[in-house]
Design brief:
alpha/beta; 2 domains; eight-stranded mixed beta sheet; two-stranded parallel ribbon
């Protein structure tokens, strides 16, 4: 990324601190993006919240006569290792595992390496293993856990290409946000617009929750009446 886009990412990430995946998903849906939340995955580690940029790995089904061509003879050139070795600050490693849950795409050693190299999270629609040894403060979202290792089922294919992960298109550099409720993909080209809308929605939601706590009727706040919105707008113009 250029210095300018690096600066833009930092600004967007700062604004998203505390904004929920649900709110971001709603902002995307309102703008016609209805297929951005990665399906059938869940947090594996105690930490679930993150904001980062997608670094992707595509996989293929393992086949004996092709795996050498796909993964290479030398371990150092294996895309499965390169996705971790080449990761950097603010990266979210996204492994598209075709929804296969009977073999892990990563274990504790590679997770540790990813964290040391600066990655902020790991996401896959496949399985993971050795989870008891993962750093508690490193978010990992996956479809399942399984003891079978990667090469029994998968062949690593290409790094930083568009992939389908959990039925969602993920492009390298897309903004990826995760929390307790899941992981959402924000296309980079609309990220500033979505971040601003999400921040505004989150602020409104906090105001409405405060109104409910003070005794306001649900009918008055969901959706907010004109009077409630006028009060909110007045508060924000002071």
């Amino acid at each position: 990324m250029t210095d300018q886009s690096e600066s833009e990412f930092s600004s967007l990430a700062k604004k998203l601190q505390g904004v929920s995946v649900g709110t971001i998903s709603l902002s995307l849906i309102k703008r016609g993006y209805r297929h951005c939340q990665i399906e059938r995955i869940h947090p594996v580690t105690a930490a679930s919240r993150f904001v980062g940029r997608a670094r992707t790995l595509s996989t293929l089904p393992y086949r004996e006569d092709k795996v050498a061509d796909v993964q290479g003879e030398r371990r150092s050139r294996n895309a499965h290792r390169e996705i971790v070795n080449g990761t950097g600050p603010n990266d979210v490693i996204v492994v598209a595992a075709r929804g296969v849950l009977h073999a892990a795409v990563i274990g504790d050693l590679l997770i540790e390496c990813a964290k040391v190299n600066g990655a902020v999270a790991f996401v896959t629609d496949g399985a993971v293993r050795d989870t008891r040894n993962y750093p508690a403060d490193f978010p990992v979202h996956a479809g399942a856990t399984h003891t079978m290792t990667f090469r029994n089922v998968h062949a690593a294919a290409e790094i930083n290409v568009p992939v389908a992960c959990g039925e969602v298109l993920v492009e390298p550099g897309d903004l990826i946000v995760g929390d307790e409720d899941g992981v959402v993909v924000v296309p980079w080209k609309i990220a500033p617009e979505i971040v601003e809308a999400s921040c505004e929605q989150e602020a409104l939601d906090e105001f409405l929750k405060a109104k409910i706590a003070k005794g306001a009727s649900l009918d008055d706040v969901a959706p907010p009446t004109e009077a409630v919105m006028a009060e909110y707008q007045k508060m924000n113009t002071r």
